[in-house]
Amino acid sequence: MSRIRQYFAxxxxxxxxxxxxxxxxxxxxxxxxxxxLGVLAAAEALLPGLGPxxxxxxxxxxxxxxxxxxxxxGTGLFVANMFGQWWLRQWDRLMTRIPVVRSIYSSVKQVSxxxxxxxxxAFSKALLVQYPRQGAWTIAFLTGKPGGEVARHLxxxxxxxxxxxxxNPTSGFFLMVPRADVVELKMTVDEALKYVISMGVVVPPMxxxxxxxxxxxxxxxxxxxxxxxPADY
Length: 233
Description:
By secondary structure, the chain is of the alpha+beta class.
């Protein structure tokens, strides 16, 4: 029985990564195809003469993925110059004047600009924080510093962190913790994400301190006070 379980576990380790990869790809293809079908249905409603052509396009596998990818790439190419930037500003100005749409569009735009722009600060560092209680540690990602009204109610220096869940890092918790209570890790953000997704199985490689960089202070068992402050963010 032990050998049967061992063979089954070995086979599972072979097929599980492939199955999850295929599932994610099919999920992405489904999203892109649904966008294409929605645009096609809107065009068919506006132009009834496109009915026969639209019906043929619906049955071409993978066409939605290709067309949506081309449109996204073309849009990026268009707004990469001054003329496209002007049209983008006009579009943003129009969307911010529409009630209800304005609040949704502005919020999503701020988040997307932070996450995907080259100058964004989202997930800039991997951190170690105590969560959900003192003495329990988990991986977190630096997202910035509290600002506005929230910052006025916080005494001392705080940082904003995102604590992902395992094995799905797209959901998690947003926390504002004292800067002295977080430890900056030398692992990259990608390595930290792999560490979280694998539930601690895929351990990032150990990195030696850079020349001139002091070694971290050793942790004393039973001491739960503030940690040494990390490097400047």
